[in-house]
Structures are given as structure tokens and as C-alpha cells.
Amino acid sequence: MISHATQILRKLRLILTKNAKTRLPFPGVRAFYKQLAGNDRINPIFYVSSSEWNLYDFLVDFFATQELPKGPFLLQKFKSGLRDLIHSGGGSHEHKQEKIEELLLRFPTLKFILIGDNGQRDPEIYSKIVSQFPDRILAIYLRDIKDEKIDTVIQKAIQENSVPLFLIKNTSEAQKHAVELGLI
């Protein structure tokens, strides 16, 4: 979902003026996620987010409106108050790493594709995940929302484990690479 997580004023404007039916996903996400899920829904999709549980109903409505594949949401602890609302999705993001590790341990035969962006800490988190579970990650797609390169140490750590890492501008790039890799 387009959230402007790294731009507080734009993020606040979205929170105050849009709802689950008027917010938009990035173009092409619906088709890509449906392809990843598989035609017969054979591939589970887990949504790990730095959003808090108080946004659960909003997320369910958004996903239903946008016809995105169903899957469990793994969110942060409930927060309240205006300050928490403004800083929603912030923090250390250790929650993401913990939840992904739990999934990998709970489903030891599944392989995963990690999708995120370079706006907060996804590259660093995914690098740690790859170093712990190198044979379980098929690919990493990071939306380039900051026009910055991924730290070379993080990039090298991921590539040393032979995990394809793609810094993408749009979903169609990810979709193209996923087809080339035989993931969809």
C-alpha cells in the first residue's frame, strides 16, 4: 500500500483524508501477488508489517477492496494516541525480523520470497534473515523509494548466499524477474 512512510506530512495527510476504500496499492501489486500465490492458492502469503494491530480492520478492508490474496497479517503491538498515530510503522522494525524468523522456523519446508522497500530497514533485516536461512530465501524484491543504493555490506551479504536481490522501481520489474527465475 502506498503509505509515504518516510515522509511524515504526506503520511499524515493520507491517514487523515483516505480510508481503506480510497487508498491505493502500488500499480501491478494485485496481479503480481495473485501470481505468487498461484492459480490454485498453493503458495501461502504472509503479510509482515510494521503497522500496528489497531490497523487490522483497515488492512482487511483494504485487501478485500483491492482483491489482494488473503493471508495472515503479522503486525506490531497495539498503539494509541496521536503521537503513536504519526509515528505508526516506525521504530526499530525488529518485529519484522522476529516474525519472519518465526515463519521460517514454523514452516521448515517452505521457501520464501521477501518483498519490501529501502525506505526503512528492510535491506538490513532481509540480510540478517538470509544469513540465518540462506537456502530458504528464493529472492528478495526491494522497491526503491529513496533513490539510494543498498548498503554494499548488506548487498554483499545477501549475494554471498546466492540469493537474487532486486532493487526495483515498480512491480512490473519484480514480476519480470520472478518469471525469469521460474517463481511464477
Question: Would you write up a description of this structure?
Answer:
The two termini are 22 Å apart. With 184 residues, the protein is an alpha/beta fold. Strands 3-4-5 form a 3-stranded parallel beta sheet, sandwiched between helices. Helix 5 runs parallel beside helix 6 (122-132) and helix 6 runs parallel beside helix 7. It has one domain (8-180): Rossmann fold, CATH 3.40.50. It has 8 helices and 5 strands, in the order ααβαβααβαβαβα.
Structure summary, number of beta strands: 5
Strand order of the largest sheet: 3-4-5
Bulk shape: globular
Distance separating the two termini: 22 Å
Overall structural domain count: 1
Low-confidence stretches: none
Given the structure, what is the number of helices? 8
Mean pLDDT: 82
Q: What is the CATH class name?
A: Alpha Beta
If you compute it from the alpha carbons, what radius of gyration comes out, rounded to the nearest whole angstrom?
16 Å
Please give the CATH architecture: 3-Layer(aba) Sandwich
Helical fraction equals: 40-55%
The CATH topology is given as Rossmann fold
| Class from secondary-structure proportions | alpha/beta
Tell me the β content. Answer: 5-15%
Largest sheet: 3 strands, parallel
Report the order of strands and helices: HHEHEHHEHEHEH
